[in-house]
Write a structure and sequence with these properties.
Distance between the termini: 33 Å
Largest sheet: 6 strands, mixed
Strand content: 15-25%
Strand order of the largest sheet: 6-5-18-17-16-7
Helix content: 25-40%
């Protein structure tokens, strides 16, 4: 056996360094540099016509939905020339590239050799042009026909001792139509093993909000931002993760709203905005966004919220009925008396100390909130990817209930979703814990009995793979190995599979860390034309605020060998279920309208789907909480206050808290480039941000090369070869980019109730680099 056959493909980015340069972090986001960066990528990947033509149709009514973030499009006043952001343009450049991977590419590059490339280089190779197959023991992927691929997968699924030996992952880019037929196939096959990317991001939100307001989604619309009095942004970096949000914040500011930013790092997109579509922005004039910036410790949000509640309670005692919304509390909530008993005993100064925020700043925040009720609270992964993520979301709800800030114009709860249709996936029943009512509806409409027991989510799937309980892994999009925690553990789990399958547009590391056999099924991107039986089709997506609208690609696909996701699911269903199916898969494969007709029968809120989705801008799904009606399972029309506990973190003297973050030049696991210009990091990703006092105290210096260690569960996890960068971050707090830092996130460190990995709080030790890795020149 050759050395190449024995070599295990690398599960992580190579431990090599580039030529890092560091500049001063920015105090504003966007502007002309964002425009320049957008067009540079587009022109390089797509040429002067293909990409720019598509840009003008992205996020437009009748155009196609951006494949990156889920920030909503304006209902009416969309920009006629640029309803997209820098990262949206970069996402388009990635999928609209004219580069493609032919069988010759795979013949010339072994899996082991490809795995030695960094994630950015792997993705920059181009679109996958035909189905590819890696036989057992082989070193190279080889072409396979669609027919053979479907039957190979179907035969493997049918050979399993139980359907529960397979798990079916879903990425947030999957359309409503594909998601619906996907879950239908998986449940007719006989399992609820349906992990999805929501398990790793906003699952804490979904669990918390469902329990206290009856729906796991935002209660606001985009127009509410413009009517708000105060906007609080927690654990979120909109300048990088959802840049179009900056336009909404700018408009809210012009209408008089105040913005409170809460984050361990000073992020450019929370401080200032140069709108590249306005004359002032083009002239370089900055709109200040945050009126108050509260720099909390990592996971200090709960203590900060409790401190605000105590200060507002004290103010309410001085002016009864002027600070709390007594009418709303009496009419629409339960549990106020028990909740307020705890608030009375809070020690504000101790809470401020735990949060890491000076008392005077917290008092300023309370003053901004005191007489206001049109309050919107936004949050993202900095809140949800914590052990107490569910409780922190509930504490956010507590604050809004005190102020009567739910179910009224200009106010409400705004979890900012990451991927473009991650919310739509869940609405389409992509879920490992489906409700009995949902399963009963499937049985009523289709006649088969869906499995009733809960399936595996992401973390449980990884553990089951490791134990040998799962034999087949099927991924509808995404880059599973780079998105998940505990990279080494997850890679070991993936390698124990008998078959791994990925529906993908481009090559990524998950294709290189595989089961005994592996298959890549290439699919269309959002911007691609989708023609079925000579007719142009369109898909639909749901954004962060519950709007469902159509998305119709306009570009000629780079290969004639690509299939849309719906056809992939339908052909796989036919190859697997054969004559035992009760679903007409051919009907779905031939028409997305047919799928939408069935969605309207199965899922509440989608009645007359085909008619309403064709309306310009689409339609809003029902949202009782938006109207002040809280349909929880426990309380009818009442939202409960929740009594929560502060986290208790105990660190050794040589330990630090670490959070994983995105660079500005990436979206989720897709790395667009090596520039994080807002933080002043250029041509490098293997960096660790540290407080200058911590650097000096530990005997380090700026630029030192270090290794990072985590010892959760008495297991040593190591991330080698990082460069120390001094940064404005609280003492004993550090930050690294993901996926490079994911190897340190323990598989067993999860949020209570939601099982979400705690990627935003990892305890690490830092030591001088051992010199194991090879530095680049």
């Amino acid at each position: 056996m050759s050395k190449e056959t024995k070599e295990q493909p690398a599960a992580e980015n190579p431990e090599t360094l580039h030529k890092l340069t560091v500049s001063q972090p920015k105090k504003w986001a966007a502007g002309i540099p964002a425009v320049a960066a957008s067009f540079a990528d587009i022109l390089e990947e797509t040429g002067a016509v293909r990409g720019p033509l598509a840009l003008f149709k992205m996020n437009q009514k009748g155009g196609f939905d951006c494949s990156s973030c889920a920030w909503p499009d304006p209902d009416d006043d969309r920009s006629p020339i640029a309803e997209y952001c820098e990262n949206g343009a970069k996402a388009l450049a990635e999928e609209a590239t004219t580069k493609k991977l032919t069988p010759d590419f795979f013949a010339q590059n072994s899996v082991a050799d490809l795995s030695k490339l960094d994630d950015m280089t792997i993705g920059k190779n181009g679109r996958i042009a035909q189905p590819m197959y890696l036989p057992k023991g082989a070193t190279h992927y080889q072409p396979i026909s669609w027919y053979d691929a479907f039957h190979k997968i179907g035969n493997k699924l049918n050979s399993l001792a139980s359907p529960n030996e397979a798990t079916f992952y879903t990425s947030g880019r999957t359309s409503n139509e594909a998601s619906f037929v996907y879950q239908l196939f998986v449940r007719e096959f006989g399992t609820n093993n349906m992990p999805d990317c929501s398990n790793m991001c906003h699952e804490s939100t979904s669990v918390a909000l469902a329990e206290v307001i009856g729906i796991g989604k935002a209660t606001v619309t985009l127009n509410d931002f413009y009517d708000s009095e105060v906007i609080i942004i927690m654990g979120q970096n909109p300048g990088t993760n959802s840049p179009r949000m900056l336009t909404a914040l700018e408009k809210a500011k012009k209408n008089g709203s105040k913005i409170i930013a809460i984050n361990p790092l000073h992020e450019a997109g929370l401080m200032g905005f140069k709108n590249p579509q306005s004359l002032t922005g083009i002239m370089g004039i900055t709109t200040q966004l945050a009126d108050l910036y509260l720099q909390v410790q990592i996971n200090g949000d709960m203590a900060l919220l409790k401190a605000l509640e105590k200060l507002l309670y004290d103010a309410e005692q001085q002016e009864p009925g002027k600070v709390f919304d007594r009418e709303f509390i009496g009419k629409s909530t339960v549990g106020y008396d028990e909740f307020i008993k705890g608030v009375k005993d809070f020690d504000v100064e101790a809470l401020c100390n735990t949060a890491g925020v000076p008392f005077d700043q917290v008092k300023q925040a309370a003053e901004l909130l005191k007489y206001k009720s049109k309050i919107i609270i936004c949050w993202a992964m900095g809140i949800t990817q914590q052990k107490n993520g569910v409780d922190t979301v509930k504490e956010i709800v507590n604050l809004t209930l005190l102020k009567g800030s739910v179910g009224k114009a200009g106010a409400g709860l705004c979890p900012v979703r990451g991927h473009s249709n991650v919310q739509g996936n869940r609405t389409m029943m992509i879920w490992d814990k489906p409700k009995k009512k949902q399963l009963a509806k499937l049985k009523e409409i289709y006649g088969f009995t869906p499995p009733q027991e809960h399936g595996y989510d992401v973390v449980d799937s990884i553990k089951a793979m490791h134990l040998g309980k799962l034999k087949v892994f099927f991924a509808m999009g995404g880059n599973f190995i780079s998105a998940t925690p505990d990279t080494t553990f997850t890679a070991e789990a993936m390698r124990k599979l008998e078959l791994s399958v990925h529906v993908s547009t481009k090559l990524n590391r998950s294709h290189l860390v595989h089961g005994e056999e592996a298959i890549i099924l290439p699919t269309l991107a959002r911007s691609d034309k989708d023609v079925v039986n000579g007719e142009d089709q369109f898909i639909s997506c749901e954004n962060s605020m519950g709007v469902v609208q159509m998305s119709k690609g306009i570009l000629d696909p780079v290969s004639k060998e690509l299939l849309n996701e719906t056809q992939i699911v339908c052909e796989l269903a036919k190859a697997t279920l054969k004559n035992r199916t009760v679903v007409d898969w051919g009907r779905f494969a031939n028409s997305y309208d047919a799928i939408r007709d069935d969605i309207g029968k199965v899922i509440s809120g989608f009645e007359n789907y085909n008619q309403r989705v064709r309306l310009p801008g689409g339609f809003y799904l029902p949202n009782a909480a938006r109207e002040g009606k809280f349909e929880t399972e426990t309380f009818k029309d009442k939202a409960p206050f929740t009594v929560t506990q502060l986290p208790d973190h105990v660190m050794a003297d040589d330990e630090y808290m670490m959070t994983t973050i995105r660079s500005h030049d990436q979206f989720n696991t897709t790395i667009y480039g090596m520039e994080d210009r807002y933080r002043g990091i250029h041509n490098e990703r293997r960096v660790i941000f540290m407080n200058p006092k911590d650097i000096a105290k530990a005997g380090f210096m700026q630029g030192d090369k270090v290794d990072l260690f985590n010892y959760y569960d008495d297991i040593e996890r190591v991330a080698r070869l990082f460069i120390i960068v001094p940064y404005n971050i609280p003492e004993r707090n550090t930050a690294t980019y993901y996926p490079e830092g994911n190897v340190l996130v323990p598989i067993n460190s999860v949020a209570l109730k939601s099982n979400c990995p705690t990627s935003k709080l990892v305890f690490i030790k830092i030591r001088k680099h051992e010199g194991i890795s090879t530095l680049s020149s």
